[in-house]
Amino acid sequence: MIRRTIKEITGMIEVLNDTSSYGDTLVSGISIDSRKIEEGNLFVPFKGERTDGHKFVEGAIKDGAAVAFWQKDVPNPPEGLPLLIVEDCLTALQELARSYRNQLGVKVVGITGSNGKTTTKDMAASLLSLKYKVQKTEGNYNNHLGLPLTVLNLDEDTEVAVLEMGMSARGEISFLTNLASPDATIITNIGESHLLDLGSREGIAEAKLEILEGLKDGGLAVLNGDEPLLMERLDGLGGNIKVQTFGRRESNDMYPVEIMQTGNGNEFRTNLSDAKFFLPVLGTHNIMNALAAMLVANHLSIPFEEMAAGLESVKLTQMRMELSEGQNGEKIINDAYNASPTSMSAAIELVSNLAGYERRILVLGDMLELGPLENEYHTRIGEMLDPGKIDLVFAYGDLGAKIAEGAEKTLGPERVYAFADKEMLSRELKKHTDSKTLVLVKASRGMKLEEVVASLQQE
What we know:
The chain is of the alpha/beta class. It is built from 16 helices and 21 strands. Helix 3 (about 90-105) packs across helix 5 and helix 13 runs parallel beside helix 14. The two termini are about 45 Å apart.
């Protein structure tokens, strides 16, 4: 984490008051929550809808904070306390992160995409840890506030930082990449997430490509070569950057030449190595994420032949293709962190083709932020189901009801259930599970379908 004196910090950002009397005080780390202050922290207060963090500045310093920001337009700053008066607390935090990143010798990998950002981040971090000290984005700290906090949490001796970059509108990725100044970037894919804000997949592609604006001269851009919306924009990228592509097609720089799906992951080979790799993550689509991570690791001097250990030991963030067991012995794939038509189709394909189960059940909820065509996207998911491979569908939510409508056309109404109540869904679902059952649980994060997983795991 950042360790700088107050005097040094005033050289990194614009501070509007005289801090000479406490300039030698050492600051260790950042906190935006007054309840989680640690000794020496810089406390950053924010004005929210319900409360103003400035009310907690005195308490934060009493609890051990070395200093606190104070926004210029907030009246009555407490006298006699170590404060850094700034024009805007968020802007000051972001500029502090930008300055700190530029002082570090760290290599930065920036990752964005409609689906698979977090999984790819976890894979890249695991591969790079074979050779380097690595830190990565934790949780969902991937936006205009979370990414600066992640950067400021980097240790001085961290060699590689793997940073996830999320967005909901144009310009957001541009801001994040220019702050992080990556040495390598990945765009996992272009899906349908954020259609509500960006209007089209073309708009999403352009927003994701903003990540290249901050890419260092001579840096590596790893792109999904199966995505025409990315490939047709290559000529307009400009700059002195290296581009490598991954995907299923042989026209890519890296592609799989052999895939064997197992009960707990995938074995595969690629065109760039004779080595066989095992990825303990369900879903062949996750091999594509692995290929992107492997290209970045190779760019940072890790040979492909040495990557097997990094892939075998990868630990994914929770609720990404997480395999567990319910009380009736059923196997549960918890992929409830997020959902789009692309990722939901991939998850359903996985469940449809996993061998060893007598019954396959889908628990599907709303996919959010899809714009005016959201009803159509949900209905299509139901209509694409193979009645020979999917036995039952349990739909949840207003848009989930549209999935149920589509599923009734392919499976028949007797095999489809629609609920507006998760407890009722869980009770009915338990009647249909046993040790020969596979259950997929997937929806956008706001639907909180992990509560269904927890119910299946309880008596």
